[in-house]
Amino acid sequence: MGFLSPLENNLYKKKNRAKRENAQPIVEKNDKVLKKYRVNELYSFKRLSR
Length: 50
Known about the structure:
By secondary structure, this protein is mainly alpha-helical. Helix content is 80%, strand content 0%. The chain is elongated. The model has no long low-confidence stretch (mean pLDDT 74).
């Protein structure tokens, strides 16, 4: 995994904490946000590389 933005880093920390506490809904919510962030990041990179 490459460099993480502060937003991503914070979400991963929350996700890992939720996993330790076995709070699945929080893990799923953070996964959705991270996935959305990654898709947007990939899309903007593809747009810039054209």
